[in-house]
Specification:
single chain; alpha+beta; NE0471 N-terminal domain-like; 2 domains; six-stranded mixed β-sheet; 9 helices; 29% strand; globular
């Protein structure tokens, strides 16, 4: 409910006073652009039917009145009448937005370190496959923590494709739809050896990078080979708290990444190691020493400090108190948000066998599926 609706500045805005005296102002042009009437939006899919150019820059509110949970607005020119859901407006209020410290994270994101320990998000394969509520909980955990495990799955080549089908689509690359992670002779990537790997994000040389990576275990009797994950967002925040200038340098200047490891393949990208939105939201980390190219976009006067920050970020990523470690068993897998969570592997010996299959996907599909499941849950209540 709204206690009062008032027209401001000769119709250029409307003020709504909510319970408790909280006032939120909305510009007339914003309200008109966000109208949901049949002449403005397609009722089936919500897409706009008109462009901003078709809305007069002289748009003004000439009448504003509340009716229960609705706000009735009349615009001029054209005496166009529109009804708004007040709760919908309250969720989208932009008045009073305050600057935030660079490196803030979106609601629903929880950063973590080694203390996550026994709280590693995990779910049963069969439950997630057969129950939408379990699937929603698992997808929600991936969104919250940036990774999650799945246990009790079939020990079958290609089973990881079924997992991706629950929420989206496989993103095929030069490594194929599925790539095999096991020791090879003369491999085209160090991931296909028994060497230990520093925590990293995958494919930083792509633009855009695959935003999800899935690794599924089929054999794992070799000594060693434990998987580790590190929250890149927590590492970036620790760097910001220790060295604000270093954090700024890694967000302001681009690193370069390159992969020329196969016939007919030459992949290059130019992006910051720590990526922020214009308002300072932390949205991405790219860190992969194996694929780093020459850094040439940093001015001479900043290069020393840039490298100090780069080194410190690597130290934070390598720190034991930042790492969560687990060893996958056959039929288990884990998925990581490849724009946030770095993954690593301890070296393993030639005794026994280790065979994982991997694939890439994108989190727009995951977030879409999660949103649909959440809306269905709300409607069922």
């Amino acid at each position: 409910m709204v206690e009062a609706a008032k027209i401001l500045d000769e119709g250029k805005a409307v003020s709504l006073t909510f319970p408790g005296g909280v006032e939120q102002r909305f510009h007339a042009i914003w309200l008109r652009d966000n109208a949901w009437d049949e002449s403005t939006r397609a009722q089936g899919n919500g897409q706009r039917l008109i462009t901003l150019a078709e809305i007069s820059p002289e748009t003004r509110v000439v009448a504003a009145r509340t009716n229960g949970h609705k706000l009735q607005i009349t615009f001029d020119p054209g005496a166009h009448e529109v009804s708004y859901d007040i709760d919908w407006l309250a969720e989208r209020a932009y008045d009073g937005v305050r600057p935030r410290v660079a490196g803030w994270t979106a609601p629903g994101i929880e950063t973590w370190d080694a203390e996550l320990g026994e709280r590693v998000p995990s779910a049963e394969f069969a439950a997630v496959r057969e129950n939408d509520a379990a699937l929603g909980d698992w997808l929600s955990a991936i969104h919250r923590f940036g990774f999650a495990k799945l246990v009790g799955g079939p020990v079958r080549s290609g089973a990881l494709l079924e997992v991706v089908e629950w929420f989206g689509f496989v993103r095929e690359t030069n490594y194929g739809k599925i790539f095999e992670v096991r020791t090879e002779v003369n491999p085209n990537n160090l991931a296909f050896t028994g060497l230990g790997l520093q925590a990293h994000t995958d494919n930083p040389y792509r633009d855009p990078v695959p935003t999800l990576q899935l690794l599924y275990c089929l054999e794992n009797s070799a000594s060693g080979g434990e998987n580790m994950v590190v929250d890149g967002f927590r590492a970036a925040q620790r760097l910001r708290n220790e060295d604000p200038r270093g954090f700024d340098l890694l967000t302001r200047y681009c690193a370069r990444f390159e992969y020329i490891g196969g016939t007919g393949v030459c992949l290059r990208s130019r992006r910051p190691m720590i990526e922020l939105m214009p308002d300072g939201e932390l949205v991405g980390v790219r860190f992969n020493n194996r694929s780093a190219s020459s850094i040439v976009d940093v001015p001479y006067d900043d290069m020393d400090d840039y490298y100090s920050a780069y080194r410190r970020l690597g130290e934070l990523i390598d720190a034991p108190d930042m790492q969560v470690t687990f060893k996958l068993q056959p039929g288990e897998c884990f998925i990581v948000d490849n724009t946030r969570v770095l993954h690593a592997r301890r070296g393993y010996s030639g005794e026994g066998s280790r065979w994982l299959q991997g694939c890439y996907a994108d989190k727009d599909g995951l977030l879409s599926k999660l949103a649909v499941l959440q809306m269905q849950g709300e409607h069922a209540q």
